[in-house]
Amino acid sequence: MVMTQISYPKKLVIASRESRLAMWQAEYVRDCLKKLYPGCDVSILGMTTRGDQILDRTLSKVGGKGLFVKELEVALEEGRADLAVHSLKDVPMQLPVGFELSCIMEREDARDAFVSNDYATLADLPAGAVVGTASLRREASLRSRYPHLNIQPLRGNLDTRLGKLDKGEYAAIILAAAGLKRLGMAQRIRSLLAPEDSLPAAGQGALGIEIRAGRPDLKDWLAPLNHAPSAMAVTAERAVSRALGGSCDVPLAAYAIWEGSDSLYLRSFVASTDGQSICRSEKKLSVASMDHADRMGLQVADELIAQGAKDLLPPR
Ligand SMILES: NCc1[nH]cc(CCC(=O)O)c1CC(=O)O
Predict the structure, then answer these.
(1) How far is the CA of 176 from the centre of ligand 1 (A)?
(2) 211 strand-pairing partners
(3) Which of 21, 89, 105 to mutate to test the pocket of ligand 1 (most atoms within 8 A of CB)?
(4) Any residues with CB less than 8 A from the CB of 273 and at least 6 apart, and which?
(5) pLDDT digit string (tens) for the chain, length 316 residues
(6) Which of 107, 136, 159, 293 has minimal Cβ neighbours within 10 Å of its Cβ?
(7) Closest CA to ligand 1's atom 15
(8) Domains along the chain with CATH numbers
(9) Among the atoms of ligand 1, which is closest to the Cα of residue 112?
């Protein structure tokens, strides 16, 4: 009788930022791994990243997405941790050499949420109402759809942002629904924004697990956490962003949803920050592989570029 050698992880360390949301996400992955590998010792190494320290300026002005992942990658590099859990939205489109996304987990609600103590929807807000958002994408959408609103920057982690709303600094704020739901604060969501009002960012609501490249054992152990439909949808979205040099200083949205079991509907826009100029493109295709999803994203990016999207982007 031939016995196949099944390897089994004995100890796994998850690197995580220390914000409440990041910790929730790391604990979620830890619990999934413990269920898969009951005897395995899974622990979390919490750390503060540059992105967490810089709370006073708009993120796009201080270096963008990489700020939240660099320290975690150093921990992977030095062998202090095996995997890092990220909100995929914060992960740069191209990882540094030596790292890879080993899997993408099933996506939470990818939409943006309208949060307010006094109003139920964006449409209810009176002229001049102050709306808080840290994202250039949300800002451009709101300025274009609701030019009578006063859009103001809003930084900080989820609790800080909600605190500023509750202190009355804003009439409403826009947050990702996924973060609120994960932290048990779904009741703060007054309404979900239609994609026409605020198209989500590439990868929003999905968790990605990053590892050092060249660890096939680890990749195999994590494979059961991959959710293929979510992975294909966000791959299409991230391809658009990658082709356009996507970073935090670009008002860019890319949102793919499945219609039926095999048809992927991808919508995207690139805007000027003032919301005055917007290029839009969308496509519906039958998609069956990651490669195919990636090509779909590139096609949508090409259409945006043909419409002059590059003129809206900062020079590279
Ligand atoms: N840019 C910050 C960020 N990164 C991930 C989330 C939570 C939602 C998600 O997992 O996409 C948020 C908060 C927000 O945009 O309101």
Answers:
(1) 5
(2) 100
(3) 89
(4) 136, 139, 140, 251
(5) 555 556 889 999 999 999 899 999 999 999 999 999 999 999 999 998 766 666 545 555 544 556 678 889 999 999 999 999 999 998 999 899 999 999 999 999 999 999 999 999 999 999 999 999 989 999 999 999 999 999 999 988 899 999 999 999 999 999 999 999 999 999 999 999 999 999 999 999 999 999 999 999 999 999 999 999 999 999 999 999 999 986 656 799 999 999 988 999 999 999 987 778 999 999 999 999 999 999 999 999 999 999 999 888 876 6
(6) 159
(7) 176
(8) 1-105+206-226 (3.40.190.10), 112-192 (3.40.190.10), 227-308 (3.30.160.40)
(9) 16
Ligand 1 centre to CA of 106 (Å) is: 16
Q: Do residues 22 and 51 make contact, with C-beta atoms less than 8 angstroms apart? A: no
Distances (CA, A) of 160 to 20, 112, 129, 191: 11, 18, 20, 20
Asked if 90 is an active-site residue, the reply is yes
Q: ipTM score here?
A: 0.93
* Residue 132 to residue 153: CA distance in whole angstroms: 6
